[in-house]
Amino acid sequence: MNKSVKRRGFVRVLWTLMLLPCPALWAIPDSDLLKKVDSLASYFGTDFSAQYTIVQNKPGGKPTTTVAGVFRRDSSETYVIVVMQPSISRGQGYLKQGQTLWFYDPESRRFNSSSNQDRFQNTNARNSDFTRSTLSEDYRVVTGEDVKLGQYNCRVLTLEAATKEVTYPKMKIWVDEHGLLRKTEDYSLSGQLLRTSAIPDYVTVSGRYVPAKILLVDALRGATINGRFVNEETQITITKPSFDKVPDSVFSKTFLEQVNR
Is the full-model pTM beyond 0.90? Predict the structure, then answer.
């Protein structure tokens, strides 16, 4: 399958899903539904680790691939990310401890302060995409509506930020009958669409849900090709998910300094 066909199929996943009325599906308030989303996307009482393969597609250019190991301990608001590929970025890492996020550069052997809002390795993913879900803490529900999203019966919630610490001031999220996120739209404060995300597949590991793939389309970044604007796209594939305990030593600056030696 050539690249143009793949791109068309990718965009179709995001943009051709029709919103149709459907019967009320949930008897709980929308604020409680938001808490349920958080509970399924966060892993308290256990550690989480997985391999993330992140493919960035920039129109007119060749796809670039980043492979990273992700380690999360949501109970202490901590994660570590270690970049394994490409070779030029190997050994770069991220350490989040509470509200503090560090980026480690093995070439300079220095830690620099980073932000949840920053792009991850210059892709359409943000650093905040790799941590636990805090939607019910960070946003308030403005409206809710029952809709049909492809094959899924969903509740679409319009959200506004309740804190200044969020990546996006406004969001729309599509939640399926199980409380799983299926689609999000991220907006600026003025209402400009910035990014659309889709999570078409989940896997169940140790009774917990883990996204298998996350598809991201940047609404602003792209290029005009043959008279048509083509958006930048990122696909994240999550493999080797595990809920085994991660050694305490992993969640430290020392680990990032020593991992590539």
Answer: no
Max CA separation in the chain (angstroms): 58
Compute the half-sphere exposure of residue 97: CA atoms within 13 Å on the CB side of its CA.
9
Q: What is the pLDDT of residue 27?
A: 76
**Structural domains for the chain:** 3-258 (2.50.20.10)
Please state the separation of Cα 78 from the chain's center in Å: 16
- C-alpha span between 222 and 231 (Å, rounded): 4
- Provide the pLDDT confidence category of residue 98 given band limits of 50, 70 and 90: confident
Residue 223 corresponds to which tokens in the numbers above?
């290029």
3-state DSSP call for residue 134? Answer: coil
Enclosing H/E stretch for 7 = helix 3-15
| Number of neighbours of residue 81 by Cβ within 10 angstroms | 22
Instruction: Compute CA distances 218 → 82, 119, 124, 142, 169, whole Å.
Output: 24, 12, 6, 24, 16
